[in-house]
Design brief:
alpha/beta; Rossmann fold; 2 domains
Length: about 300
């Protein structure tokens, strides 16, 4: 926590020391239109801007998907980017689909991954898309706090009139993030096999070890060699359960379950939803912990 927050504080000082970015021009309705690219970023942004009437936050991508590597902006997406006064991104390579749109936009961009120590990507060995770093940073509450701090500083630089309110909201949201409740330390099996590559930060934060992570999508199921490796790991480590992502494919996991007798559980990457603010995020992360305790405890 201290390392991540120290990096975030340094970022804030750097933002203050550098020349301030040009403030967005007021829209016709007098509001600052903030566009969040993904649902986790939207939740954090709405938490930081809660109750501020002259700031409007909208969400760009909100669909049931476990992977954005092949996402393509629609016509409506492009219109949303054009209307935005500020764009808030997850960063770390998650939104490669935004490259051309950002090049054509004059809106300032807030990169939520600034100051976060990124982990190398895993799980892409047999897929066409290779990413240098794992962008699923929101799956760690410490990183989530830094992401909100980046949003606070970014919006504060652009909209100084509301800086105090952004700060109050950030402090309130950060106070909701849970500490370590010790449940994971008592697991009889602290090993994860996941059919999505996005749980690396979550595992590290909870003292778990990912033995194998496969990003399985429709049309790109696990190879025979990967299946053989997973079966061997299940037997070697006496693993009682494996995990899929709620929006991902579970075909291979179910086949492995039939062969080995393990159970299949679902974890949530929080890539889509209906709520705003911190509660949907907190609920999903708590449910993930409950699921792992049930599966491996």
């Amino acid at each position: 926590m201290k390392k991540l927050l120290a990096a975030a504080c340094v970022l804030g000082l750097l933002l203050s020391a550098c020349s301030s970015p040009a403030a967005p021009q007021p829209s016709d309705d007098g509001k600052l239109h903030v566009l969040a690219t993904t649902y986790p970023v939207y939740l954090f942004t709405t938490a930081v801007t809660e109750g501020i009437g002259d700031v409007e936050v909208s969400l760009l991508v909100n669909q049931q998907t476990s992977c954005l590597h092949d996402y393509t902006l629609t016509v409506n997406d492009m219109k949303a980017v054009e209307r935005a006064d500020v764009i808030v991104m997850n960063g770390a390579g998650l939104e490669d689909f935004m490259t051309d749109a950002l090049a054509a936009s004059d809106a300032p961009v807030i990169d939520c991954s600034e100051g976060i120590e990124l982990l190398p990507a895993i799980g892409h060995e047999d897929h066409d898309h290779d990413t240098e770093y794992d962008p699923h940073i929101w799956m760690n509450e410490e990183a989530a706090e830094v992401m909100m701090n980046n949003i606070l500083h970014g919006l504060g630089e652009l909209d100084g009139d509301n800086l105090d309110r952004y700060t109050e909201n950030f402090n309130a949201a950060a106070a909701l993030l849970p500490g370590d409740d010790g449940r994971m330390s008592g697991l009889s099996c602290p090993y994860l096999i996941t059919f999505h590559d996005g749980f690396q930060y979550f595992a590290r934060d909870n003292g778990l070890t990912i033995l194998k992570a496969i990003e399985e999508e429709e049309g790109s199921e696990a190879s025979a060699a990967e299946i053989k490796e997973i079966v061997a790991l299940i037997q070697e480590y006496d693993i009682p359960a494996i995990f899929t992502e709620v929006n991902g494919s579970d075909a291979t996991a179910q086949a492995i379950a039939r062969e080995t007798g393990v159970r299949v559980y679902q974890l949530d990457m929080i890539m889509s939803g209906e709520g705003v603010g911190m509660q949907p995020y907190l609920d999903a992360m708590e449910k993930n912990r409950d699921t792992i305790v049930e599966a491996l405890g």
